[in-house]
Specification:
By secondary structure, the chain is mainly alpha-helical. It is 64% helix and 5% strand. Among the domains are: 79 residues, no CATH class; 56 residues, Helicase, Ruva Protein, domain 3. Strands 4-3-7-5-6 form a 5-stranded mixed sheet, sandwiched between helices. A two-stranded antiparallel sheet has the order 1-2.
Length: 588
């Protein structure tokens, strides 16, 4: 960290004095000129408040980087071979202070680059991260924005010696995606539990378009899984999940993101992982993420947090997010060599830290009253350390949560009653739930939708029956296909014999269950539909329930878990920055 700070300051001085270290007199025949480099070191040492020896080492590092960059540019022009800077895992790099460069063509797949890096550095399973995005191994590098001199993070996603752990971690992303995809569909399935809803900062459900809601649930699911892994200090695999969450958030509209703070918190968590992995060389991506987080907080909370105060009555609990934001901004400013800005942000952090650090005695007083440690910590922050106010606040929050749960139970009972009414007319339960969702619970309007839909289905069935003419079936039987599969193929292809034959050939004459089920269920009558929906227990649903239960383990039962920071990690980083920034310097 200190080395990056010194180099950043020296680059500012060199730029101001228009000194180019890669040219004479500082570089001769690609070698440093000791006399001129020493002279420059002695000139800059008093300005930085460090020894000429330290300055000399930093200047040589800058000079060598510039020379290598020039060579890389020439090589790329002549051979199209690009030079990439790799940010390797700490234990894979021979010297963490030395930058790692790698040559490759850009018209090759990312998988080829992954294989070469794994072989050269003895890594078992890795992901490549460029500008906060995971590279797709099946696409070419240049198609994904990789350029000459791109900085790329090499993220280990499994223990190099444990193949089983590798498989488990690869499955983790897939199972998380599947689990929350199932949950995103359950708003219309009242027989499935849990019933997942998205709420605002007061816990009230938000009315969101279905597709956007699915993306948001997936984003929040990956985020929760990532946060769970962060708590276990598994920052590498946590970052994989957080970046997946970021991709899902990109599918949500700006209007939605301006009403919830999840997106801003995610940006902070991603940069916090960068910090933990010592990958803050991803400086540009980290800076842009913190800017997005700050802008999002302003939108959601208001310029002076007035919206937050209006919604929740106070801002104390959310201030830990600003503490982390300012702390990361201070860290990045220091790495860029801007000590003045780093100190300015750090002073904000120190003020917030003094106010938000839990008072042990006050925590104990509240816990003896029967409140949990989390409730005590959040309550004291919300009430600026006043124990009596905090006790009242916690009691009120408990009551609000119980009232909200009661409202949700009543809402669910009302929906179930409405579904029962509609199924009494012979409609499918899931169709009835979907219609009620469209009409916001209006039974009469839902009945009209279902009735119209059933009439269209009957018409479609008649057309399908016409498509399966005996002559066409006989043609397929003559070709050697079985009657049942021939009839199904004709229904699926609207009576096109040639297309039906092709479909059967592609499936070795036997259509898979999902196609046959689709065909058989394409037009049930109302009488047929009702009993089929009640048989919801199957091996598939059991497996789905297992996946859902697994991902739900990572969701906190407390809606303000993301605000319950103990500030232990923050305290360590504050102390480190204080130590670095206390060094005397005349520059910046």
């Amino acid at each position: 960290m200190a080395e990056q700070n010194i180099e950043a300051k020296l680059k500012i001085l060199l730029k101001q004095q228009k000194i180019q270290l890669w040219n004479p007199p500082y570089t001769l025949d690609n070698r440093p000129s000791p006399e001129h480099m020493q002279e420059l070191s002695e000139q800059y040492a008093p300005l930085l408040g460090i020894s000429a020896l330290e300055v000399g080492g930093a200047l040589e590092s800058i000079r060598a980087q510039a020379v290598n960059r020039g060579k890389g540019n020439q090589m790329f022009r002549e051979t199209s071979v690009a030079t990439l800077e790799l940010l390797l895992p700490r234990d894979a790099s021979k010297d963490p202070k030395t930058k790692t460069f790698f040559q490759t063509k850009l018209d090759v797949s990312a998988q080829e680059l992954v294989d070469r890096i794994r072989e050269d550095y003895g890594l078992k399973s890795i992901k490549l991260i460029l500008n906060g995005r995971t590279l797709n191994v099946d696409q070419r590098l240049d198609e994904q924005g990789v350029r000459n001199h791109s900085k790329m993070m090499v993220l280990r996603v499994s223990d190099a010696e444990e193949l089983q752990k590798q498989q488990n971690q690869n499955q983790s992303l897939q199972r998380t995606h599947k689990g929350f995809q199932i949950l995103s569909e359950r708003e219309e399935d009242l027989d499935s539990k849990p019933f997942l809803e998205i709420a605002d900062q007061k816990g009230n459900p938000l009315n969101i378009p279905h597709q956007e809601k699915k993306a948001l649930i997936l984003a929040m699911g990956f985020h929760e899984k990532g946060r769970s892994l962060m708590k276990r200090k598994q920052f590498d695999i946590a970052l994989c999940h957080l970046l997946q969450a970021d991709q899902q958030f990109s599918k949500c509209g700006s209007a939605l993101l301006s009403s919830v703070d999840n997106f801003a918190v995610l940006q902070l968590d991603i940069v916090w992982c960068y910090r933990a992995l010592e990958a803050l060389s991803c400086l540009e991506d980290a800076k842009s993420r913190l800017q997005r987080a700050e802008s999002s907080f302003l939108q959601v909370y208001g310029e002076q947090q007035q919206r937050l105060r209006m919604i929740k009555g106070n801002t104390g609990r959310e201030e830990v997010l600003f503490l982390r934001l300012y702390l990361l901004q201070s860290l990045l400013a220091y790495i860029e060599g801007n000590d003045a800005q780093a100190k300015q942000q750090l002073s904000k952090v120190e003020a917030l830290y003094r106010r938000l650090s839990p008072d042990t005695e006050k925590m104990e007083q509240l816990m003896t009253l029967g409140f949990t440690e989390r409730e005590a910590r959040l309550g004291l922050r919300a009430c600026e350390g006043d124990v009596q106010e905090a006790a009242l606040h916690i009691s009120n929050r408990r009551q609000e949560r119980e009232e909200m749960k009661a409202r949700e139970r009543q809402k669910r009972r009302t929906r179930l009653e409405a579904v029962t009414v509609l199924t009494g007319f012979g409609f499918n339960r899931k169709d009835a739930a979907r219609a009620l969702n469209q009409t916001k619970g209006n039974v009469d309007q839902a009945y009209t939708i279902l009735l119209n839909s059933s009439q269209i289905t009957v018409a479609t069935n008649n057309n399908s029956l016409e498509a399966v003419s005996p002559d066409k079936v006989e043609q397929l039987l003559y070709l050697g296909f079985e009657r049942q599969h021939s009839e199904t193929a004709l229904r699926l292809t609207d009576g096109d014999v040639q297309a039906a034959a092709q479909l059967l050939l592609e499936n070795q004459g036997e259509l898979p269950p999902d196609l046959t089920q689709e065909s058989s269920s394409s037009g049930p009558t109302q009488e047929e539909a009702a009993p089929s929906a009640s048989t919801s227990t199957s091996s598939t649903s059991t497996e789905d329930d297992e996946v859902v239960s697994e991902v739900l383990e990572d969701i906190s039962r407390h809606e303000e878990d993301y605000l319950d920071l103990t500030l232990e990690e923050e305290s360590e980083l504050i102390a480190t920055l204080q130590s670095h920034l206390s060094r005397p310097t005349q520059l910046l």
